[in-house]
Amino acid sequence: MKILISFSVLLGFLAAALGGNFNQDFDITWGDGRAKILDNGKLLTLSLDKTSGSGFRSKNQYMFGKIDMQIKLVPGNSAGTVTAYYLSSLGSNHDEIDFEFLGNLSGEPYIMHTNVYTQGKGGREQQFYLWFDPTKDFHTYSFYGILKASFQESRIQRCGSGVPKDQPMWIFSSLWSADDWATRGGLVKTDWSQAPFTASYTNFNALACTVSHASKSCPKNSSSSAWFSESLDNSGVERIKWVRKNYMIYDYCTDSKRFPQGFPPECSLA
Ligand SMILES: *[C@@H]1O[C@H](CO)[C@@H](O)[C@H](O)[C@H]1NC(C)=O
Ligand SMILES: *[C@@H]1O[C@H](CO)[C@@H](O)[C@H](O)[C@H]1NC(C)=O
């Protein structure tokens, strides 16, 4: 994820052609005015105060391809806040790919918590410190593929056999408070005198097939259709290894207390 390395010129071009507009592509789903679409659809902000958080959801469902969003997380003392950005097909057998960004005291590191559900089954948690300041500038967060192996490579996460791939998913994001658990198990509470807390979104680009009202449409083929099964190139894979090695703080695949009978099958994948 994060600035998932070098996008090709072709992707840049297609992405521009399909450039996202929040008015067109998303609905604000909750928060009673705390979520706002600004700047003619180019910017979206979520905010959180003591009364409520807020959230939005894509109008379309997506399969395959690549979904980029630039996000600037809650700056300053964000302890207890959680910014979630995820794909989900909803329903009891849902597929879901989650990012949750757990805020922290000023100057202390955010944690990125990830999970993957396949056919309604999750339990694939991993946690990372971020290797950049996610609050200072916008950073690009990408879902790649939504196709089998590319997810395994690209998203730092490993999913193995039951990888989300069959069910088109909506894009969701929300900002809420979870100071009962988020910051060191609930040790650090949200400082409401700092409210409202705000996370910002811009430059949404989906180079992906969309599904709406049971009809599917995909971006037109260009001279190359590499985007369709877009996954990471070698430098991207190396970068993921570097992140895992240096910034990973929890991996369900090494939590032997949790899996005394042996790790889930996907854990043996590279
Ligand atoms: C917050 O900072 C502390 C101290 O650096 C760290 O132990 C913790 O993992 C950080 N993140 C969260 C979400 O608590
Ligand atoms: C798009 O291109 C791929 C290979 O580049 C090809 O397999 C596929 O059939 C093409 N799809 C359309 C709709 O032209």
From TrEMBL:
Q: Tell me the first and last residues of the signal peptide.
A: 1-19
What keywords are annotated for this sequence in UniProt?
Apoplast, Cell wall, Cell wall biogenesis/degradation, Disulfide bond, Glycoprotein, Glycosidase, Hydrolase, Secreted, Signal, Transferase
| Tagged with keyword rRNA processing | no
Q: Where are the transmembrane segments?
A: none
Task: Report any one BP term from Gene Ontology.
Answer: xyloglucan metabolic process
GH16 domain segment(s): 16-201
Q: Lipid metabolism: is it a keyword of this entry? A: no
- Gene Ontology molecular functions: hydrolase activity, hydrolyzing O-glycosyl compounds; xyloglucan:xyloglucosyl transferase activity
Which GO cellular component term is one of those annotated?
apoplast
Catalytic residue positions: 96, 100
In short, the EC number is 2.4.1.207
Q: Which domain of life is it from?
A: Eukaryota
Tell me what PTMs the record reports for this protein. Contains at least one intrachain disulfide bond essential for its enzymatic activity.
In the UniProt record, which residues carry a glycan?
104
UniProt-annotated location(s): Secreted, Cell wall; Secreted, Extracellular space, Apoplast
What's its job? Answer: Catalyzes xyloglucan endohydrolysis (XEH) and/or endotransglycosylation (XET). Cleaves and religates xyloglucan polymers, an essential constituent of the primary cell wall, and thereby participates in cell wall construction of growing tissues.
Q: According to its UniProt record, which protein family does this protein belong to?
A: Belongs to the glycosyl hydrolase 16 family. XTH group 1 subfamily.
Fetch the PANTHER family from UniProt: XYLOGLUCAN ENDOTRANSGLUCOSYLASE/HYDROLASE PROTEIN 8-RELATED
- Please report the name of this protein according to its UniProt entry: Xyloglucan endotransglucosylase/hydrolase
Which species is the source of this protein?
Sesamum angolense
